[in-house]
């Protein structure tokens, strides 16, 4: 018998690496929003373990000058998709990760309360690898089996003026085509819902 896709909010297709940076969702909160982010540490450097170290509070702040700018930061996302398409999960989707900060979508504040955060290894505004995008589609399809998603947006859409990721290099039209979810708002298609 095959392993279930989800076990207590953990995706069977991802490597599990627990982050201490999470908390409970408000009572009655349902996950209805997926927020796409981009990250690389240091910026523009791919393939190291620095993102995983940041999300697990193990980053060596003295290893690179850029890290002084983020020293002491305690953040997390639910998922991180590397350039090669491999996925790491840090927080159960049943819990609240610390990824969106001050944010709102479609008139609702505090997006962390009702969203799942997905980090793509990349630069804000840069392109993303095809294998990453295909992994993202697989993840979103499986998330929709567990949670009633009604929107997939970028960090830039929930925190405009404060955040700009994933940026213009992210192909929202391709994502909509691959998902074929007419009932789900895809950020670039529904700017009036910001």
CATH architecture: 3-Layer(aba) Sandwich
Which topology does CATH recognise? Lysozyme-like
**CATH evolutionary superfamily:** Peptidoglycan recognition protein-like
Report helical residue fraction: 10-25%
Strand content: 15-25%
Principal-axis shape equals: globular
Strand order of the largest sheet: 3-7-6-11-5-12-13
Q: List how many beta strands DSSP finds.
A: 13
Keywords: Cell wall biogenesis/degradation, Cytoplasm, Hydrolase, Metal-binding, Zinc
Domain N-acetylmuramoyl-L-alanine amidase: 19-167
Subcellular location: Cytoplasm
InterPro entries: Amidase/PGRP_sf, Amidase_domain, NAMLAA_amidase_2
Structure summary:
This is 1,6-anhydro-N-acetylmuramyl-L-alanine amidase AmpD. One of its GO terms (molecular function) is N-acetylmuramoyl-L-alanine amidase activity. The chain has 194 residues and is of the alpha/beta class.
Could you walk me through the main structural features you see in this protein, from its secondary elements to its overall organization?
This protein is an alpha/beta fold and 194 residues long. It has one domain (6-193): Peptidoglycan recognition protein-like (Lysozyme-like, 3-Layer(aba) Sandwich). The chain is built from four helices and 13 strands. The chain has helices at residues 50-55, 130-146, 155-158, 172-179; strands at 6-7, 10-11, 15-16, 22-24, 33-39, 79-81, 87-89, 95-97, 104-105, 108-109, 115-121, 151-154, 185-186. Strands 3-7-6-11-5-12-13 form a seven-stranded mixed sheet. A two-stranded antiparallel ribbon has the order 1-2. Strand 6 (79-81) and strand 7 (87-89) form a beta hairpin. The longest helix has 17 residues, at 130-146. It is globular. The chain starts with 5 loop residues before the first strand and ends in an 8-residue tail after the last strand. 37% of the residues are buried. Mean pLDDT is 94; it is low at 190-194.
């Amino acid at each position: 018998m095959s392993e279930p896709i989800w076990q207590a909010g953990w995706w069977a297709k991802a490597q599990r690496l627990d982050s201490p940076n999470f908390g409970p969702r408000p009572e009655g909160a349902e996950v209805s929003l997926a927020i796409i982010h981009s990250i690389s540490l240091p910026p523009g450097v791919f393939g190291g373990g620095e993102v995983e170290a940041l999300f697990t509070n193990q980053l060596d702040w003295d290893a690179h000058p850029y890290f002084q700018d983020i020293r002491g930061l305690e953040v997390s996302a639910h998922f991180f998709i590397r350039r090669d398409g491999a996925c790491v999960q840090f927080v159960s989707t049943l819990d609240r990760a610390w990824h969106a900060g001050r944010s709102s979508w479609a008139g609702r504040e505090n997006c962390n309360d009702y969203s799942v955060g997905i980090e793509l290894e990349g630069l804000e505004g840069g392109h993303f690898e095809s294998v990453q995008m295909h992994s993202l589609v697989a993840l979103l399809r499986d998330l929709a089996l567990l949670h009633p998603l009604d929107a997939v947006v970028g960090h830039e859409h929930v925190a405009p003026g404060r955040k700009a990721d994933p940026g213009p290099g992210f192909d929202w039209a391709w994502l909509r085509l691959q998902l074929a979810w007419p009932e789900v708002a895809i950020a670039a298609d529904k700017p009036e819902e910001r």
